[in-house]
Amino acid sequence: MGYGLILAGLSFLFIPSFGIYDFMPDAIGYALILIGLSKPSRLNGDLYNCGKYIKYLFYITLVKLLLLYPLSGLKDEMTSMLYVFFFAIAETVFLLLSFSSLCEGSYYLSARAGCSVSDKAHDDFKTVSRFFIIGRAVLAVIPELTVLTNKAYRESLSVQELENPTIYDSKPIITVACAVISLIIGVVFYALAIRYFVPLIKDKASRHELKRRYEEETSGVEKQVYNSVKSASSLFTFACLFMATLYFYGWDILIDVIAAGLMIAGFLMVKRVIDTKKAVVLSVVFAAVTALSTGLEYYTAKTYFTDASYITGASFTAYIISASAKAMGFVIFAALLYYVYRCLCIIIKYHTKSPTFDEEGYKKRLYGRCKILCGAGIAACGSSAVAGFLFSYSELFRFVGLIFFGAYAIYMYVTTTKLCEELSRYI
Q: Cβ atoms within 10 A of the Cβ of 268, count?
C-alpha cells in the first residue's frame, strides 16, 4: 500500500548536504513519498494531511534546487548563508507537521487493519524523527553561520585584528564535523524507520485488508478513472519538471532518467482504464536514451569542462554527440506527450459529463485545451533540443529548457486539474 515507496523516499532525506549542495536531492525523496501516499491517504485523514505537507516540501526543495546554479555562480558566502538558513526553516516546519501526520496516520490505519507493529517501534520512530528533523536543520546552518565572523565583511580593522584567527577559519572542519554528526543521526533515524515500516510492508493480512478497503473506497469505473487521471497527471507534471535543464559544472543535474521513470509510472496508472502498452514501451526506450545521454553529458563535462564552458575546438565533436543524444530524448518525450494527449481525449470522450445541453461543444472545448497542452509540450521539447546545440554560441541558451519546461509544467498542472474537476461531475 505504498509503504515501500515511503521508505525509499526517506532514504534521500538522511544523507546530509554540504553547504548549499545536496548530493541526493530531497525533492526526489518527497516525490517518492507522495507516490507512496497516493493510496493510503484516501483511507486516513492524517495521511491525507501528510500528503499535502509533503507536496509543499516537494515544491520548496524543487525551488531550492533550481536556485542552486545561479547561487553557486555568485560565490557570495553571505548569500549562501541566507539561502541555507531560509530553506532549513521552511523545510523544518513542514517536516515536523508531515512526520507527525505520517506516524499517527500509518499507525492508526495499520492497527485497524490488524498489523502487529509494536508500540515501541512507533514511539521510537516518532521521537527520533523530531530530533532528526531539527538536528539536520541546525547542523546544516551552523557551518554557514561562521561567515558572520569572517573579517572580509568588516571594515576598519587593524593588521593585528586581521591576523587573529576566527571561527570562520575553521569552517571546513566544522562543515565536515556537522556532516558526520548529521549522518550518524540520519542512520539512527533510518534504522528506526526500517524497524517501523518493514512490518507494515511484510504483513500480508493487513496489506490485503487495506487493499480491500481501498477498492471499496474507490469502487466504480468513474471513481477509478478520476483517481487514475489525478495520480497520473501529478506524475506527468513532475516528469516535465525533471525535463527542465539546470546545468552545474557542465551537465544537467535534473536527470532526465527520473522523468522517464515518472512517465512509466503515470502510464501504468492510466492503464487501469485505458490501454497504454505502447506508451509504456516508448517510456522504457526513453529511459534508455536518457541514461545514455546523461552518461555522455557527464563524461564530456568531466573531461572538457573549464570555469566557463567545455565547448572548445577539442571538445566540439564530443559536445555534438552529447547534444544529439539529449535532443533524441526530447524528441521521444514529445511523442510521449502526444500519447498523454490521446489518453486525455479518450477519457474526455467516455468519462466527462456536460453541465449544459451542448454536449458536443463542451467536449470540443476540452479537446481544444488538451490539443494546446500537447502542442505547447512539443514546442518546449523542440526549443530545448535546438537550444542544446546553440549553447556553443551563447550560454544563455542553457536556460531555455529551464524556462520552457518550468512554465509548461505549471500549465500542465492547471489544465489537468481542471480536467479532474470535470471528471468529478461524473462520480
A: 17
Place of cell 505504498: 2
Name the grid cell of 392: 556553443
pLDDT for 290: 92
Q: Which amino acid is at 12?
A: F
Alpha helices by DSSP H, listed for 11-44, are: 26-37
**Distance, CA of 296 to chain centre:** 23
Domain boundaries, given as residue ranges, for the chain:
1-217, 220-427
Distance from C-alpha of 229 to C-alpha of 86, rounded to nearest angstrom: 35
DSSP 276-341: -HHHHHHHHHHHHHHHHHHHHHHHHHHHH--SS-S-STTTHHHHHHHHHHHHHHHHHHHHHHHHHH
Question: What are the cell numbers at 314?
Answer: 577539442
Residues 6+ apart with CB under 8 A from 357: none
How far is the C-alpha of 117 from the C-alpha of 122, rounded, in Å? 8
Rounded Cα distance between 361 and 367, Å, is: 10
CA angle 255, 256, 262 (to 5 degrees): 110
Measured at the CA of 314, the angle between CA 313 and CA 320, to 5 degrees, comes to 80
Q: Are 113 and 210 in contact (CB under 8 A)?
A: yes
* Grid cell in block for residue 305: 569542462
Distance CA 348, CA 273 (A): 12
Cell numbers at residue 357, please?
445541453
Tens digit of each residue's pLDDT (9 = 90 or more) over 174-226: 888 888 888 899 889 889 888 888 887 776 776 677 676 666 665 566 677 77
C-alpha distance from residue 234 to each of 36, 239, 303, 403, 423 (Å): 13, 9, 37, 19, 16
pLDDT at position 355: 67
Strand, coil or helix: what is 252? strand
3-state secondary structure of 262: helix
